[in-house]
Design brief:
- The chain is mainly α.
- It is about 85% helix and about 0% strand.
- The protein is built from seven helices and no strands.
- Helix 4 runs antiparallel to helix 5.
- The chain is elongated and about 60 Å long.
């Protein structure tokens, strides 16, 4: 039965790969411009003038818009996690393919933990809009601070690791 499914999907390998790569591009690039050109400058301004209420309002508005925009990223990541293993299986890859194992190690060791945390901070327990709607200013500020520190720490890891994974997937060096 599984072999029949694998053979069937094998006929659509390139289409499956297209879906996977499109999801990867959305995941990698969907928040990069907003982060670099909107979020970072507004947080720098807030750090310079932490008591300026107008900057704080703009910081909060920008952060919530960033969370909304991250929905594209957060939809595409599960698509990657479904299509990636399917490509591995249908393509006949195994643990002896060095570049693939390194790529999977980065996905499992860096991307998945970061994305689980990001989902939590943007949409679940750390969702800033919920604190705002509840009138919890202290909780809101704490959530903004936590998410900002998370972004500061995780963004360089994602940027470097994503480029390594893309390099491995394209060049298949070993």
């Amino acid at each position: 039965m599984l072999e029949s499914i694998r053979m069937f999907l094998g006929e659509y390998y390139l289409q499956l790969k297209f879906i996977h790569l499109t999801a990867v591009m959305v995941w990698v690039w969907s928040t990069s411009v907003a982060y670099a050109f909107y979020l970072v400058p507004v947080f720098k301004a807030w750090r310079r003038y932490p008591a300026d209420q107008e900057i704080i309002r703009f910081r909060n508005w920008t952060m919530e818009r960033f969370d909304e925009g991250a929905s594209y990223e957060h939809i595409s990541f599960p698509v990657i996690l479904i299509t990636g293993p399917l490509l591995f299986w249908v393509g006949g890859f195994n643990a002896h393919v060095g570049w693939m194992m390194l790529k999977l190690l980065i996905v499992a060791g860096i991307f998945i933990p970061i994305e689980v945390t990001d989902y939590y901070l943007a949409h679940f327990g750390g969702a800033k809009h919920r604190y705002r709607k509840a009138g919890d200013a202290v909780g809101y500020e704490r959530a903004v601070q936590h998410h900002w520190w998370f972004l500061l720490l995780s963004s360089p890891a994602i940027m470097v690791s994503a480029m390594i994974v893309l390099y491995l997937a394209i060049t298949k060096p070993f």
